[in-house]
Design a protein that fits this description.
elongated, 44% helix, 31 strands, five-stranded mixed sheet, alpha+beta
Amino acid sequence: MVAENATLATPGNVFTSASVSLCPSEEALAVLLSPFSGTCSVGLLPLDAEAPGLESAAAMRWLDMPNEIRATCVEWTDELLFVGCNRGRVFISDTPKSAASEGGGGPFVPCGALFCSQEERPVSEIVISHSAHAMNTAVRSVRVNRGVNESLVLGLRGRKAYVWDLEGSPSPVTEWAPHEESTDTAPVMFGRWAPGSASVVLTGTYEGNVMLVDTRANNTNNGLTFAVRKGYACSSGDFNPLLPSIFAAASCDGTFSLFDVRYTSHAILSVPSLQGDISTLKWMNLNSDLLVTGGTDGTVALWNIRSPPTFCVGRAQYSYSVADLVTTETFLDQRALSISIGGELTSTGLHMDAMMKLAPYPMYGRHASPDSASTDAELAEMEERETAACGFLYTRQLRDAFTLLAQCAEDRLSHGDTEIALKVVGMMDVSRVPPLDYSSLIQSKVENSDSPLTVSDVRQAFELLLERTSTHLTTTIALTRIRGLEKPDSLDLRKLEALRLNIMLSQVLATQDPDKVAIGVEKALELLATHPESFELIDGDIVCGIVSLLLKKNFEAGERFVKFLLSKLSTPDLLTMAMPLLKRILCTAQEPLITADNSRYSRRFSERFFRDLPAAQDAVLTQLTITRLGIENYKEVTATVNAYQARCIEKDLPGIHRWLGVKPILLFLHCLAAESNYVSFFWSSVQCIQAYEQFPAVRQIENVLFAVVNRINTAAGKIADQLNRLADTERLTIPILRQIDNALKTAHGFLVVLVRVQLECENVAIDSDLGHLPPLMETILDVLNNASEDVLEMWGSVVDLLIDAPQPDMVKKYCLSSIRDFSFSMEDLMEVSAKGEDDEQLNSILDVCDDFLDAMTQQ
């Protein structure tokens, strides 16, 4: 225990009232001492050190009040000092927190006052029953509504509670007797604003009644009454700052009880303090499981709600009955500052080492994974480090805590204990305490008081909440306000965020379920968007495994994941550190790779692909786009690749011929063939085969090329066979002439396409300034030329048959139009041919057409 005390009065002096109040910034402490006779004084103590010590108590600045004023309580904001006094008055002094550092004492100078009533009857005129409680006109308690509306002030006098608005008149805007079932004169012992509420107040009476009241409700049923120990004065109460639904109330029989405002019929927990009457009670502000009580026997006790059966984890004994206490929230070393009726100012708490031992260890009861490679000794060592990390986190020693958490999570992950590793990483999360709407809660409970939950259900829910807030960084204030708090190392933060992502992705990847993986990826994307600095520590194997799985089974989700990763990893801040991961993702997105073998040439080829990283990303995104479109959208595929190639030409880049992915290249070639864009198909195929001739995967490209060539050659053979059969016809009947005309149309269409392809392929070579055609292109053109020659030979035989036919009128009727259109098409191809009108093949075809047309004209 840490127990310090400073005596503010001469030994033997006893005060009728003693009260303390911290200003909201906790840079100063106000102490009120009210003797039986003489002058009441308010002392101001600066608290400008990292620990709330009492070293400067001897130099405390005292403000003396007029002799006729008997003060009972004090409350301090950063600018105003409130003192509750006799005759139902609250005096206000313009006393900023900086006044504590000013030298010397002086008089207490009020700048205003609040009154419980406009006309206060003299004490001599007040008549009370012989069985009533002693009459007291003093304002027992003053509470400013901090954090919500500091112009609202709550005060207690007798059996009534009052609320003043500093922006209005000095009269109360609301006054009420919260405990109607109490006797007329049973005083209200304490009053507290509900956290974050502008109207709800918690009160307790001398007869032991505790009530939560909404002062702004328009109906009489505006409060909740809790099942407390009736007959024992309820001396103090306080809301848990980290669990706003929980409050503690102390009874004069030495017992304090915990209640959940959502369940009024029973207490969650009742603890006998064994220290006589409890005069005051407060929760510690940074730990949801720590409570401090001050007793009439002079003890200040510290209680841990998670430590049954005694719950007491520290006790300090002082000389006089404790009158009032406050707990700090902006000091790393938490303290309870109390004042006794003997003028003894005390500071009580636990040493950091002792506090660390109170930390819960959330991994207890969790066994290592069956696949874990940990030995018993390694498990014991890891649990010891995790326990230490929990202790550091519990005491807000964040730098040490996060360093250990990162090490522990890495150890667990390396041993295959992913579930525990994720829990360790999750301990770094900062949880902001959610607000509780007390007004709505009161209204709903009044309308429907029945609860289906049992006492054990409520206690179990409370224990879960308590464990959550005790094992995680839960706070109601900005951590930067805590003095002495060291910020976590940024590298440890990045490690933990990256570990969380790696564990999350590892778990979803292990399911091999694309739907679960897609959901996990969405969560990962949110996490990465929040913590982009974690990219550099992402496990490349896990990320690439997910990319590969999604692109195979849920392509659209995989494409989104890849695009997001590329957009984030390519930022200037991360590019250098994330370059290895970026390259791996780009490779994975193109799998299966043409450079699948690990030869020196393959490595060099891949290195050239990554020399221009923006170009590499453009290439991969183009491949993903056309893969998503698929062969059924062949026109969009070819348009996308053509646009990509145009961008590459502008930048003098090799384009598609440097891609690493096999499937996108094959898809593009298939789409060209489906679109009958044979010129682009042949040249693209030839160029790809030349570019990838060193890799075994080139065989797949060759297979696509030769399949198309064979298909053309086969089609030419079928057309030639049909024409050959018709050329042997001896008698040209009308049905035969119709067959000949249909066959000629088929042959003409085939020849126009085939001849145009040959001519345009030759033109590409000429336009590209190629000295000669690539050998493979020469072979293709030879095959196409042979195919066209075979068809032309049979076509010529059929035309000769028609010229020599004895029925020229019938021939003219059925075949003239087809051959004349074919002649026009061949003339158009003269403009395509690089030889122009000197093209021998075209002239030969036109000569045959002219012979036929002349013969028909002569007839």
